[in-house]
């Protein structure tokens, strides 16, 4: 039920213009959050966790700030990077709707409308709880309004952590810097 609620909640971001002020300050396109967290994300732990979530059955590219993008299997490095950058661009230049999902290991997986993901690690959110709570509203894109049961742009801890994770997508989308291509696990390949 909570998952369905958050799916609806973040999908409503598309309609945020209906709930905003009539007169809005000039915004750059695409709209981006004000907050770029300085909290380092351990990319190797994200790779390991995302590989677990995909059961090792996908090739993916990880970007500097931890965004993982699934790419077609077996592509040469340059084509895999090109496909991953195109996927990020499609999300960023349309609208980065997110679908945060609580995972069985306590982390949050933030999904988008194309195969790009951010893993929000529980240990990082626990260590940085105060910073996330203090800055989560800065994680909203310019003029974005998300409706919750508590009211417009009021979030529980899960919502705050999901917004925090989505900030890293925006950072990777504004300056896409792939750092590694992870190949489908050879253990899962049929000989």
Helix-strand blueprint:
Layout: H1 2-11, H2 16-19, H3 43-53, E1 59-63, E2 68-71, H4 77-92, E3 99-102, E4 108-111, E5 116-120, H5 122-127, H6 129-135, E6 147-148, E7 151-152, H7 157-174, E8 178-182
Antiparallel strand pairs: 1-2, 1-8, 2-5, 3-4, 4-5, 6-7
Helix pairs in contact: 4-7
What does this structure look like?
This protein is of the alpha+beta class and 191 residues long. It has one domain. Helix content is 38%, strand content 16%. It contains seven helices and eight strands, in the order αααββαβββααββαβ. It has helices at residues 2-11, 16-19, 43-53, 77-92, 122-127, 129-135, 157-174; strands spanning 59-63, 68-71, 99-102, 108-111, 116-120, 147-148, 151-152, 178-182. A six-stranded antiparallel sheet has the order 3-4-5-2-1-8. Helix 4 crosses helix 7 (157-174). The longest helix has 18 residues, at 157-174. Mean pLDDT is 86; it is low at 14-27.
Strand content: 15-25%
Q: How many separate domains make up the residues?
A: 1
Distance between the termini: 42 Å
Q: Which sheet architecture does the biggest sheet show? A: 6 strands, antiparallel
Oligomer: single chain
Averaged pLDDT? 86
Shape: globular
Query: How many DSSP-defined strands?
Result: 8
Q: What is the gyration radius calculated from CA atoms?
A: 17 Å
> What string gives the helices and strands in order?
HHHEEHEEEHHEEHE
Coarse structural class: alpha+beta
Low-confidence stretches are 14-27
SS summary, helix count: 7
Order of the strands making up the biggest sheet: 3-4-5-2-1-8
Helix content: 25-40%
């Amino acid at each position: 039920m909570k998952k369905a609620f958050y799916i609806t909640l973040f999908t409503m971001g598309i309609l945020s213009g209906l709930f905003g002020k009539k007169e809005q300050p000039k915004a750059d396109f695409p709209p981006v959050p004000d907050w770029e967290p300085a909290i380092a994300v351990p990319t190797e732990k994200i790779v390991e966790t995302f590989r677990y979530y995909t059961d090792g059955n996908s090739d993916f590219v990880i970007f500097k700030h931890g965004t993982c993008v699934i790419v077609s299997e077996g592509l040469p490095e340059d084509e895999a990077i090109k496909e991953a950058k195109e996927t990020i661009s499609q999300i960023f230049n349309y609208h980065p709707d997110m679908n945060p999902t609580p995972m069985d290991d306590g982390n949050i997986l933030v999904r988008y409308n194309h195969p790009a993901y951010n893993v929000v690690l529980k240990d990082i959110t626990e260590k940085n709880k105060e910073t996330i709570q203090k800055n989560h509203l800065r994680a909203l894109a310019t003029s974005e309004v998300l409706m919750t049961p508590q009211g417009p742009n009021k979030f529980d801890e899960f919502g705050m952590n999901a917004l925090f994770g989505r900030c890293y997508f925006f950072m990777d989308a504004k300056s896409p810097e792939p750092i590694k291509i992870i190949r489908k696990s050879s253990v899962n390949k049929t000989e």
